Amino acid sequence: MVVRCHALVPELLDREFLLSIAASKDEKAMRASLTQTPYGPYVEPLPQDARAMDYERAFYELFFHRLERIIRVASDEMAPFLKAYFPLRYEVMNLKRVLRGKYTDASEEEIRSLLLPLPPQFIESYDPLIEAKGVEEAVMALEGTIYKPLIDQLEAFRELEAFWILELALSKVCFDAACDAIEEAPKRVSGFLRGFISLDRSVENILLLESIRMALHGRQIPAEYVEGLIGYTPLCPRRIGDELLRGRSLGEIVDSLKPPLPGILLPAVEGDYALVRTNLKRHLLEMAEDESRKRRFDVSYVLWFLLRCEAEVLDLTRIAWGLDQGLRPERFRRYLILTPGS
Amino acid sequence: MSSISGVRPTRAFLIEMKRRIRFVERGCEFLKLKRDHLAKELTESLNALRGQRRILNEKLAEVYEALREAYISLGPLEVVSQAKSVRKETDVDVLPMSVMGVLYPYLRVKRRPVIDVELDVSLAKVARLLLELFDQLINLAMFEARTERIADELGKTNRKVNALENIVIPSYRRIVKYIEDKLEEEALDDLVRTKLIGGVLTRRRP
Fold this sequence. Notes:
The structure holds 2 protein chains of 2 kinds. Chain A has helices spanning 2-8, 15-22, 27-34, 40-43, 52-72, 79-85, 87-103, 108-113, 127-130, 135-140, 149-152, 154-160, 164-184, 187-216, 223-227, 238-246, 250-256, 261-269, 273-294, 299-324, 329-332. Chain A is mostly helical. The radius of gyration of chain A is 20 Å and the shape is globular. The two termini of chain A are 33 Å apart. Chain B is built from 4 helices and 2 strands. In chain B, helix 1 runs antiparallel to helix 3.
């Protein structure tokens, strides 16, 4: 697995290349540059008038292909973590999109058009969910899979008429699976993985709680509905969640957190949540890179490689969207993960 | 002179035409009053509209910035998916209102969109900023429709006034003049005829 990652590293796009793509005149110029890269076979079949969404799907196709090649040869002790952190996370994203579609009575084509090109991982097929008559029937179709905890939330969903309960439950499934997988990971890496997941989840938790606070201001949702659905971590314990929901300012909360959270979350105080996610991805990548330097032939290198591939896809998607909107590169360059300081 | 063809040069028709001219002139005066009032309304509306638009454009630029961040943060597919998940959509009643007989739509908001926790924090920020502008956007849409209708009506009224002042009234006046000339001519003919007959009768009288 590690050797395969080393062999695939030359395929990665470098910082200068990404910057040159970001400075392209338009998407056509970006596409011409990408034809010389491993993304070529994925972007070439796209129609001439392809939009950012089409490019996003094409970029993810290569990423999922790489992911599949790595996970296929992953050792038994590492495969659960890699599967829980990557394919499961993306499958959860797709499931959220399917359930949102069901919630708003979107057509089957509309739902399928918004899915990432990831084959089903922990379910047999998306079809029964997409073809279901409503949210409840779709959730019931998850019986017998790792998404079973969603069925327990149907009552709360009905009672509060709140779809977000199901979204929170799905995110929690993802977090729990990653935590369980860390338990199975070898001791030499479990500490690093725990810190890694804790940081990732903590930042997402703060953003999630901020979103709940923004949406619920003035309205009271019984605490028990939210409590079990947020995967608190040592970096972001329940106390922080309670304080945020009680109305303590985000600035004060961020100041009270342990490093490196304040550095990552600082832009959120100004309302720039996109930069928070860029900072988080950069930090996670750096964490994996530092760890992989210590052990060049260990799982941390695999994690670094997959994070690097993911960051590349995120950056390319941001560039494609920026070019689609006719934005000057300086308007979106600072949000690129792989080109810090540019 | 085509307006004169087919005109019956009779005294009754002359009286009728004069009555019509008075009526049309009165109508024209009313239309001028309406035109002046609409012009005043339009000027006021345009000034207000310009101010509102400028303020709203600045605020919408702020919303666009937030939307840009959301797209960058989540990617286009996720933004579209989340945006479509807002089920509690806007519902408005469109009622007719009138100014100087000009109908324009009045929007009464029956249901405002409700943004729930379904949205990611970056999209929730966009939604919150847009909700703050919701009333202003509705007002602006209403005001724009009102201004457009007033401008349309002003154009129509202006054309009507011009048509009455430059075509209808002058053509009626020409008809009146033509009938008066004809009647005068006929009166002169009658006079000459009467004189001639009178002369013949006088000569025949023994």
